[in-house]
């Protein structure tokens, strides 16, 4: 059976603050700049992706959920809004853990905080 999905989008979380004292990478939050990045992404290309598929795969970390919420809100036309239940968030820890494994960690050390496109095109 055809799923009717014509496009898949990968959105990386916005800029984040340093780990809080004694905290872990998991605890990092979006900065005000990161919130603006998520909003601009929604406005610049999020609207082109509508209507959205009702299942959204996302890392369960706060910064990715916040990025997603801001992205979705800013992708809406003026006067529109999402209703409770429009989407099912599918928390996928692998989306977080995948970059923390040895190969992902080595790639991160090499590339740092690069755009997703740079990671996808890395040798």
TrEMBL record:
SUPFAM superfamilies named among the record's database cross-references: Phosphoglycerate mutase-like (SSF53254)
The record's Pfam families line, in alphabetical order, gives: His_Phos_1
Q: Region labeled Disordered — which residues?
A: 13-46
Could you tell me what this protein is called?
A: Histidine phosphatase family protein
Q: Where is the composition biased (Basic and acidic residues)?
A: 25-46
Q: Which SMART domains match?
A: PGAM (SM00855)
Q: Which InterPro entries match?
A: His_Pase_superF_clade-1 (IPR013078), His_PPase_superfam (IPR029033)
């Amino acid at each position: 059976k055809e799923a009717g999905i014509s496009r898949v989008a990968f959105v990386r979380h916005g800029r984040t603050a340093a780990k809080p004292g004694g905290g872990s990478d998991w605890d990092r939050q979006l900065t005000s700049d990161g919130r603006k990045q998520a909003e601009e992404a929604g406005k610049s290309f999020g609207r082109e992706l509508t209507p959205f598929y009702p299942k959204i795969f996302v890392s369960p970390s706060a910064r990715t959920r916040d990025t997603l919420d801001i992205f979705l809100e800013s992708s809406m036309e003026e006067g529109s809004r999402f209703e409770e239940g429009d989407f099912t968030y599918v928390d996928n820890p692998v989306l977080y853990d995948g970059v923390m494994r040895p190969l992902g960690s080595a790639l991160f050390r090499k590339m740092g905080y690069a755009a997703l496109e740079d990671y996808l095109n890395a040798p």
